[in-house]
């Protein structure tokens, strides 16, 4: 997912690894996904070798040299492929990268996205049905409790995955609006100049990032106004 995340970021604007790293830290993605800020530079190197990104220029910041990368046409195609692959993955643990997938749905054609999600829901329902059939065969009065719970857990997991994807379908337009506003924020702000403590110290109450996300989902008409206010706050030194 880290490669997909980098391509998503570069699809919005050319930038350097440090800004992407800071964005991950500011949003605390490391705390609840498998995306780690420390893996950014390694992934950038891999993506460049694969021809998915290209070095646009280098900037000297003090004694440091920052490499500004841009996405290539092959990278844009790979981004959509990565996105579809993530959509097709099962959700098994609390660190699943799929939990942060919904804010990126705006980068894909809506009709194609809906069809893809519906197909995956059908796959999940079939897996649930197959598991229930196997449960009916395997579980009886002599079955160990631990084995019964294994089946219960698997079926419950399928139920929640189906619910998650059904909710994604219902809220697809709100998610697209969220992605659009997030892209605007990324485009306007150089996150490498934003201190993590400043973000949480200055942006508080109804102005914080999480509240902005909720505002966009609950009231998209007000999202642009709140986004502009947040941008001004983040620009303070």
From TrEMBL:
Protein name per Swiss-Prot or TrEMBL: PadR family transcriptional regulator
InterPro entries noted in UniProt: Tscrpt_reg_PadR_N (IPR005149), WH-like_DNA-bd_sf (IPR036388), WH_DNA-bd_sf (IPR036390)
Natural source organism: Vallitalea pronyensis
Boundaries of every Transcription regulator PadR N-terminal domain copy: 6-80
Highest taxon of the lineage: Bacteria
């Amino acid at each position: 997912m880290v490669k997909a995340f980098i391509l998503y970021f570069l699809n919005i604007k050319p930038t350097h690894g440090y800004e992407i790293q800071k964005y991950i830290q500011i949003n605390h993605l490391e705390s609840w996904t498998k995306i780690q800020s420390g893996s950014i530079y390694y992934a950038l190197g891999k993506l460049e070798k694969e021809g998915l990104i290209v070095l646009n220029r280098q900037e000297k910041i003090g004694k440091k040299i920052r490499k500004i990368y841009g996405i290539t046409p092959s990278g844009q195609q790979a981004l959509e492929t990565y996105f579809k692959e993530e959509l097709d993955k099962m959700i098994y643990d609390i660190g699943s990268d799929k939990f942060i997938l919904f804010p990126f749905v705006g980068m894909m054609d809506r009709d194609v996205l809906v069809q893809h999600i519906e197909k995956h829901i059908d796959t999940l329902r079939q897996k649930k049905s197959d598991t229930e059939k196997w449960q009916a065969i395997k579980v009886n009065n002599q079955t160990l409790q631990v084995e019964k719970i294994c089946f219960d857990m698997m079926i419950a997991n399928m139920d929640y995955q189906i619910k998650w994807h059904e909710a994604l379908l219902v809220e697809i337009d709100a998610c697209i609006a969220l992605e659009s506003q997030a892209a605007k924020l990324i485009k306007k702000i150089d996150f490498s100049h934003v201190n993590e403590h400043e973000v949480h110290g200055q942006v508080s109450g109804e102005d914080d990032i999480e509240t902005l996300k909720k505002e966009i989902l609950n009231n998209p008409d007000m999202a642009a106004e709140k986004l502009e206010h947040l941008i001004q706050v983040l620009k303070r030194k």
